[in-house]
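cron nightly-structures :: item 1 of 1
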Amino acid sequence: MAERPAIVLLSGGLDSTTVLAIAKDQGYTPYALSFRYGQRHSVELEAAKRVAAAQGVARHVIADIDLRVFGGSALTSDIDVPKHESLDDAGNKDTGSSVPITYVPARNTIFLSFALAYAETVGASDIFTGVTAVDYSGYPDCRPEYMEAYERMANLATRAGVEGTQRLKLHSPLISMSKADIVREGLRLGVDYSLTSSCYDPDEQGRACGHCETCLLRLKGFAEAGVTDPVQYQGA
């Protein structure tokens, strides 16, 4: 059977790990791509390595870029990561009117551009990303209209696209799923979520804080799915 290569953006968190399992389940041979982009900790990269090894990707590339030179985010500058007692305290995410300080300017555009280059070099016509527009932080580059626009642009941007040897498809299988739905799908596919890390501000032992927005969203998903999150939390 011919290989169906696909690039999978892999942060080491809940969403991207689930997307990797989905890509494999759909018969793709995954080439994982992670980034050391100047984020405030390396815990998620260690998680990405564990996940890539456990799921048996064809190759795992960690690209080095430095977004700290721009700053502008609690993840790439000396700004405290906001902590909350509940998602209600984090603000109204239904309207998408408030973009949190954990948003990294143009991060998904940058990451997808690297994925586009990686795809062309391995002959892949498919890129998988774990963006979601439900139970998320309101980032502008996670919206369906953004993903659709990027796919159109991508097919104008490469030699393979211009020569007609590649028609790129951008897959966002989680975009309309809640965190609970994502957890259920991952468990159905045999994902070991104990290998993952979603926290924006883990401690030196890699334990999740439990109070940043991404921790609260993750905990909400596991609770609504009726299962216990297997990662370690501070104070637990």
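cron nightly-structures :: done
The chain has one domain: 5-225.
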